[in-house]
Amino acid sequence: MSTPYEPYLLTADGTADFGALRRYEERGGWAAARRAVTEMTPAEVIGLVKAAGLRGRGGAGFPAGVKWGFVPPPDRVPGPRYLVVNADESEPGTFKDQALLETDPHLTLEGAVIAAYAIGAETIYIYIRGEMPAEARILQEAIHEAYGAGHLGAGLYDTATRMDVTVHRGAGAYICGEETALLTSLEGGRGYPRIKPPFPAFSGLFGQPTIINNVETLANVPAIVNRGVAWFRSMGTEQSPGGKIFSLSGHLKRPGNYEAPLGIGLLTLLHDPRYGAGPWQERPFKAVIPGGSSVPVLRADELDVRMDFESLQAAGTMLGSGGVIAMDESVDMVEVLYNLARFYHHESCGQCTPCREGTGWTARILRRFHENRGREEDLALLLDIADQMMGKTICPLADALAMPVKSHVTKFPDEFRRHMGGEIPRYVPPSSWAVG
Amino acid sequence: MSLAFSERARAEIDRLLARYPTRGAATLPVLRVAEREFGGIDDDVMVLVADTLDLSPAQVRGVFSFYTHLRRPGWGKYVLQVCATLSCALRGCEGLADHLEARLGIRAGQTTPDRRFTLLKVECLARCGESPVLQVNDDMYVNVTPAKADAILESLP
Ligand SMILES: Cc1cc2nc3c(=O)[nH]c(=O)nc-3n(C[C@H](O)[C@H](O)[C@H](O)COP(=O)(O)O)c2cc1C
Ligand code: SF4
Ligand code: FES
Questions:
Q1: Is the ipTM of this complex over 0.95?
Q2: For domain B7-66, which CATH number applies: 1.10.10, 1.10.30, 3.40.50, 2.40.50?
Q3: Candidates A176, A178, A217, A346: which one to mutate for ligand 1, based on the most atoms within 8 Å of Cβ?
């Protein structure tokens, strides 16, 4: 905490247009990939990232180096390996990967090349969400530049390594951000998640060993190679080392992406003039969702927490994607939950009964509350449905609605009781237009 | 049934196919080519895509129907997508949507009779810090006030 935090993720200004490569190289870019490929063995790269303790930034927080180490050796599983970049960013309240790709595409590319080298992959697929055509073009241009400069292609840095990158555009489906759904989609199917095991590290894309990493996770890798484990661990906490991009949205004076060390106080992010700068209309905060829409909500009296994996878990919620959604006292928590239930019901792939039925049932009950026709027994029913959704499905999308339901209903029961035929105060109704 | 890809599109499809170990994996990319080539994806286009990739038409229909972002036949020249998910709802996307509905005289989900505009409410567009957010075909606009929306619509050719 003594030395001020120095950003290393969001360091480029504005949109990366033609010539992004030159500007990236001027900032020392691509030196880490060259160094990893020419001076380090794959095992050394994995060991370095393990020692740094880099945890996945896509939501689950799994240690990246450990995951890379799961890829079996070629004598056990022959054939190609794949590195897949998860650029499907669609968790409501999260917009960090968009910023990384728009402003500095080479950073993620370089991280991906290092990761691919570490796991013995010669092919990288970047799965980018369909609603980001501009970012896909920027990436495509960066890839073109990187081939031209010898950072991609055959005989990488005069070694026998080859590296190819393909940008693959999604087409509008939140569930394709879930790693196994992403693989199914990339293979050309409907985006259905798969049962694990087998884990993708053994049998993933086209049945071959595959590692999937989030954009921001990979964007951390070049700096770790360049500056080492001690530097990386000088930021953040013991269990959550490094920096993080926090996406702040909702009722703040300065919504936006802010890079800060993991473990920074949520109150600092919300109130400090360098970050969120406090509530936009001077009304106190009522609630904050700290890690993207899928995690339990925090009440105003619970905001004194640190933004790292372990602290938020101890507080009964999760760091998730690091998307902080701030809501002031004008907000009606019933409408908030209704908006989210509608979203998850719309995005359920429908394979699992508890998810397909549970998200729909939850949304219908909340619609009743929205129409001021809630019943006391519905509160227990909502919790019961949430219990039946938790941990009983192929992928965690069902949990991603069940957890918000539980936290909203148990932390704000009086707001639900107002929607039982009584007079509803004139709140900001966040979802009345969005009623599907 | 005389539908066919142009020479240029076929060359692009060949380049796409070279990037994947299976033909099926090129389904979404080829649907994108078809979208550009034919302006939307109807059943004839899906049959053509299936033939091109050695898939059955049912397979392509199944994939197409799963994804919301591919152009449906009947959509207008400009597809206006307003994000309606939580962060944007907190910052007044409703006002923008109401304004567009009133200006165009249609409800969300509908297309103007002259087939110029389709208005859609969509889920999070990953620009939650700059809401309200409006995507017009491939172009993203942020912090969109009703006046800014008017200016955007008037600037369209
Ligand atoms: C419903 C659902 C949606 C997800 N969406 C995304 C996403 O948009 N981007 C992402 O990187 N990870 C997403 N994930 C997490 C991925 O499944 C996976 O954990 C992640 O890509 C692994 O990369 P990391 O270890 O580098 O974080 C999602 C998970 C679930 C269950
Ligand atoms: S939990 Fe929901 S989204 Fe996930 S596989 Fe099951 S039905 Fe599909
Ligand atoms: S909630 Fe609207 S862009 Fe994310």
A1: yes
A2: 1.10.10
A3: A178
